[in-house]
Amino acid sequence: MQELSMNVLDVAQNSVDAGASLIGISLCIATAQKRMTLTITDNGHGMPPEFAARVTDPFCTSRTSRKVGLGLPFLKMAAELTGGCLTLESEPGKGTTVCAVFTLGHIDLAPLGDMSATVAGLIQCNPSLDFIYTVEADGERFCADTREVREVLDGVSLAEPQIALWLRDYLHENTEHLLQRSNAV
Fold first, then answer.
1. Does residue 86 contact residue 80 with C-beta atoms inside 8 Å?
2. Residues near 151 by beta carbon (within 8 Å), at least 6 away in sequence
3. What is the pLDDT of residue 58?
4. Distances (CA, A) of 9 to 12, 120, 121, 151
5. Global pTM?
6. Apex CA 22: angle with CA 89 and CA 119, to 5°?
7. What are the helix and strand counts (H, E) for the chain?
């Protein structure tokens, strides 16, 4: 995958498929440490330890429609190409956390892509699920929580096209200056 936002889409879709009702997507940028950390958490079914240990193998998948699963292996490769790493913690019945660490400024750091459009698309396609999207850069933080958005919308579905467009623009306006610090945008 050429952009990290597509990795986010794939891993978050795994969370949806795992029955999660709450999915967290967090991006933390520490320019002084030259580090960017991408974390995706969910409260889905989780994985047994033996499966979690093999999940970054491209030939390990729970899907029946194909024999390969490339989302996590590609994310792991993207992190490792920058000298970073990927960790995965999962517990059956409690959920999964995927954390990828990237070295900022590294020549092999993939572009971040359009995170605002990716997150807004995930929300629009899964309007009954809750998402928390957090971007933090050098101590400055923005957080959007669909539970709060739903409260303001008072019954209007997050799947409505106008709401998805507004949400994409809202996320973009509030995170773009933070994401610029990663030099991966």
1. yes
2. none
3. 57
4. 5, 11, 9, 25
5. 0.90
6. 95
7. 6, 6
Domain count, the chain: 1
Predicted confidence (pLDDT) at residue 182 exceeds the cutoff of 60? yes
**Given a cut of 80, is residue 61 above it in pLDDT?**
no
State the DSSP string of 18-68. TT-SEEEEEEEEETTTTEEEEEEEE-S----HHHHTTTTSTT--S-SS-S-
Q: Which residues contact 16 (CB under 8 A, 6 or more apart)?
A: 23, 122, 126, 129
Cβ partners under 8 Å of residue 70, min gap 6: 10, 58
Task: Please report, for the domain that includes residue 43, its CATH number.
Answer: 3.30.565.10
> 148: domain range?
4-182
Which range, of 45-54, 75-84, 105-114, averages the lowest pLDDT?
45-54
Convert the pLDDT of each residue in 114-163 to its tens digit: 999 999 999 999 999 999 999 999 999 999 999 999 999 999 999 999 99
Asked if residues 86 and 75 have their Cβ atoms less than 8 Å apart, the reply is: yes
CA angle 21, 35, 16 (to 5 degrees): 15
Please give the structure tokens belonging to residue 93.
């019945």
Instruction: Look at 37 and 55; give whichever has higher pLDDT.
Output: 37
Q: Which of 123, 120, 122, 101 is nearest to 184 (CA)?
A: 101
The answer to whether the CB of 71 falls within 8 A of the CB of 38 is: no
